[in-house]
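Input chain follows. Return structure tokens only.
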Amino acid sequence: MLPLLLLLATAADPVTPTDVARAGEPMTPAGNPGTWATNADYPATAMRDEREGTTGFRLTIGPDGLPQRCDVTSSSGHTDLDTTTCRLVMERARFRPGRDENNQPVGGTYSNRIRWTIPDNYIDKLANAGFSVDQTRESWPRGPSPLPAMLLIDTTAHYPAAALAARHEGDVHMAVSVDALGKVSGCSVINSSLSADLDKAACALMLSQGAFTPALDGNGKPTKGVVPAMFRWFLPRPEAPVANAERSLALRKFPMSEPGESSLSVLLDAEGKASNCTYSRIGETWLVAPGINPCDTIGGAQHYIPFTDAKGQPVARRITLRIEAKIEAPDVAKPSTVP
């Protein structure tokens, strides 16, 4: 168990219920505010990047004791830490309403801080971690996100015996299916490490230890989604050089080694609602993993800022994204170089 990562500061601005007479009863938190954030809530990317900070927030509470609004009063310097702070307290904070002079329930405001701190032993655990999430997310409008424990899976503890004996290393690129509860429901290899043992072990780890925050659909409700992920298997490094020890890093096929084309098109109407989505795929591209149709998660009640014409009036527009992979001989006159 990791030590506590998040600490609610003990010093807080005073609770200031609205319209409460001096003789009235003030609003108070129901339960311990220290439970509103736990070590499992640390944003995975922020933990991986070793980003820390303190976020000050102010909640506006209704007469029913439920938060109505969260405002960041002092930033941690990192958007994801600030956003996660408000999301957590809006979901978990509950209050006993105050009472005015007529004994009627009233709300108010509550201010506090969350300090995001990475534990000292995190770096040691990260040294052997192999799991990471590819930058592209398959689900829309928000895909599943790995919980911090996923980034601390130790490759040395799960290395397949046959691959270890053969001194094989490699990267396994996968499409990881996550259900509406955040549990991994499936795993398929997109690009192999060229070691069947490493490929099989990577998906087995996703199925046994995968833990995610579920995707959200167009209505903001939890739904199933797919995460393009990568697991890197690397051999344990000896303390000192070992004679005649060799590592075999299996080569894998370049992701765009065959021609391909993907096209995604969606209509955004004058009210900002997405509909009429179409998707096509031929051959290999990086738009989405094989077997995934992004149109399945587009739509719902989600609205966006619509496009406008020259007069500033809302208009409907169709947005089309195309990705094409071409295999061509290099230009002899202008040879391409990779910096």
